[in-house]
Amino acid sequence: MESFHVVGAVSLLSSIQMGYLARRVGRAREAHKILPPAVNGPPEFERTFRAHQNCVEFYPLFLVTLWTCGLFFSEGAAVVGGMAYISARHMYFNGYVKSTKKRLPGFYLTLAALSALALMSLTGIVSGILRKYAHVHL
Amino acid sequence: MESFHVVGAVSLLSSIQMGYLARRVGRAREAHKILPPAVNGPPEFERTFRAHQNCVEFYPLFLVTLWTCGLFFSEGAAVVGGMAYISARHMYFNGYVKSTKKRLPGFYLTLAALSALALMSLTGIVSGILRKYAHVHL
Amino acid sequence: MESFHVVGAVSLLSSIQMGYLARRVGRAREAHKILPPAVNGPPEFERTFRAHQNCVEFYPLFLVTLWTCGLFFSEGAAVVGGMAYISARHMYFNGYVKSTKKRLPGFYLTLAALSALALMSLTGIVSGILRKYAHVHL
């Protein structure tokens, strides 16, 4: 694992982003005076809350595809896909806070980055399994 | 890590399943005309939403026990336990969409698969620590 | 990865804790007769539910910083930070069940443990990248 510093850096950056987005929800609670454990309130608060929840729901999928891409396909490709995902999530969150419709461009970019990471992972895993168990070198 | 392609394949499959379940929630939103950020609606929508949330809540636990089992106990056992978990989640989700009670068989299977993965991980970790720090070979 | 048994043990312990906290929500459902998929009810139930949700939201961040610290900085430091996080989450959850205010001491400790893990990870990753790509040895 010594050689996966850059995928580690992208993972750490993404987790700092997730911490920052949780903080944004906390600030929205303060701005709208919504004391926990309540999760309902004015539309802007509910959009901020749901934007964060959606990021939470997808975060483990991102980590899995980032690392399977990095380990089994290419570290460089994982870094590019990972940075694209992090940027897309930033755009998604800020869009969603403004309006439900404005979440969509960032969300589609998120799906594109995830799909690219998953496709590269699949390529790397299938060719690795063929190499290991069937001695087929693509 | 070069040799963990099959555990990587199970992880990737599980993350594709999680993406598919998120899509099912999106389709339930369309069918019942529940626009985000709302998460309340007719019972079938709420069951679909909560079924997905429960999968989200348990997904990191699954990934941890899958990989600790694969790394420290046996790759083959991790694959079997992982595929059992993925099947159980499929059964759970489809059951829960139908009725609250029908979530139970899949849920119990989920817990069984998770417990088996955790128990094998524990065995592998304890015997690894004994071997490494106490030079005891079980 | 053969040598990361102790970080594996901390990961496994944290996932057992997460399973236990999910069980606590299940028991709160039974105590207050809140049948799934409902997530609203008396304040104590809602605090228990949100306490668990907050643990779920932060769990992948914990796993990322635990492993980047263990892999790229120091296994011992990761174990200490990880055990601190698990203890802080225990304190947070039990405090939150009692009152919204009593969640705070545990929550601040959680953030301290996470920040320490992230800072050590960052140190390890930056010095690793400098060593690998710039041949600078700190």
From TrEMBL, chains A, B, C:
Q: Which GO terms describe its biological process?
A: leukotriene biosynthetic process
Where found?
Endoplasmic reticulum membrane
One term under GO cellular component: endoplasmic reticulum membrane
User: Would you say which domain of life the source belongs to?
Assistant: Eukaryota
Report which residue ranges the record marks as coiled coil: none
Instruction: State the Gene3D superfamilies in the record.
Output: Membrane associated eicosanoid/glutathione metabolism-like domain
Transmembrane ranges, per UniProt, are 58-86, 106-130
GO terms for molecular function, please?
A: enzyme activator activity; glutathione peroxidase activity; glutathione transferase activity; leukotriene-C4 synthase activity
InterPro entries linked to this entry: 5_LipOase_AP (IPR001446), MAPEG (IPR050997), MAPEG-like_dom_sf (IPR023352), Membr-assoc_MAPEG (IPR001129)
Q: How does it sit in the membrane?
A: Multi-pass membrane protein
| UniProt keywords, alphabetically | Endoplasmic reticulum, Leukotriene biosynthesis, Membrane, Transmembrane, Transmembrane helix
Task: Provide the protein name.
Answer: (Atlantic silverside) hypothetical protein
Q: Which organism is it from?
A: Menidia menidia
